[in-house]
Amino acid sequence: MATDDDDDDDDDDNDDDDDTCLVGLFFTGIFSLDCTLLNVYQRRVIWQNLRLLSRMSNSFPTECLSESKAFELPLEILSDAQPLKRDIKEAFYEMAIQAFNIFIQDTFQSTWEEKHLRQLQIGLDEQLRYLEQCLEEEEEENEDMKEMEEEERKHSRDTVSQLSNLELRRYFNRIDKFLKDKKYSHCAWEIVRAELKRCFYFFYKFTALLSRK
Fold first, then answer.
1. pLDDT band, residue 112 (cuts 50/70/90)
2. Domain span at residue 185?
3. What is the DSSP string of 56-81?
4. Does 29 score more than 50 pLDDT?
5. Total domain count for the chain?
6. Is residue 156 in some structural domain?
7. Contact 131, 100 (CB under 8 A)
8. In this structure, what are the phi and psi dihedrals at residue 2, rounded to the nearest 5 degrees?
9. CA-based, 20 to 30 A from 158: which of 23, 103, 106, 191?
10. Which among 163, 171, 139, 155 is positioned nearest to 79, based on CA atoms?
11. Which of 81, 95, 92, 94 has its CA nearest to residue 38?
12. Is residue 155 part of a domain?
């Protein structure tokens, strides 16, 4: 004869099974996405990361205002002047890997919610793997296109892409240096959190470029 405790255990097991199924469906959905839907995926994941950054702290501490710094986000790296979709993908990839490297540092002196930080790390990691997949697929598709004219164009595009990535690296290097100079203080992390919200929002606005190019 089943007891009430047995029924409760069965309910818990069912809940665990449901959670497992949902997680499995979530990851299957991510990795089955076609790269032609990259703009849709990027828009969703960047918006999720923005929400997580907002939830990690209730508000910006007023005592940290005096330590604020201009990190000079290179706004020109994404624009209608960018020649090809691949250049834009590479800029999104560079942003994601640099942000991921910032948020996996084991130097937090903050009151941030641990679960939101972990979710942010997972989201950035998924974003990186998806972008890597799409960039690799595009590289394979272009392997046979080696005519002289195409090579000249590719060289020109590579130069633009390298410059954009260099500017992004310099931007994140300034953020990393700021954290080190401030000895990874609570205020330093709050300032960086606010800055990366600005950075993510900038990229979020330009997800539409991935579908137009």
1. confident
2. 91-141+162-212
3. TSSS--GGGGGG-------GGGSSTT
4. no
5. 1
6. no
7. no
8. -75, 135
9. 103
10. 163
11. 92
12. no
**CATH code for the domain in which residue 179 is found:** 1.20.1250.10
Query: Range with the lowest mean pLDDT among 19-33, 34-48, 170-184?
Result: 19-33
Inform me whether the pLDDT recorded for 156 exceeds 60.
no
Would you place residue 115 in the very low, low, confident or very high pLDDT band (cuts 50, 70, 90)?
Answer: confident
- Minimal CA–CA distance to 86: which of 174, 169, 212, 210? 210
Q: Does residue 14 belong to any structural domain of this protein?
A: no
Confidence grade of residue 164 (pLDDT, cut at 50, 70, 90):
low
Long-range pairs, 123-127, Cβ under 8 A, ≥24 = 123/45, 123/48, 123/49, 123/52, 124/49, 124/96, 124/99, 124/100, 125/100, 126/30, 126/45, 127/42, 127/45, 127/46, 127/49, 127/92, 127/96
User: Is residue 58 included in any domain, yes or no?
Assistant: no
- Backbone φ, ψ for residue 120 (5° rounding): -65, -45
**What tokens does 31 get?**
């990795």
Distances in Å between the alpha carbon of 1 and those of 5, 7, 10, 106, 202? 11, 11, 14, 52, 61
Contact 94, 30 (CB under 8 A): no
On whether the CB atoms of residues 55 and 113 are closer than 8 A, the answer is: yes
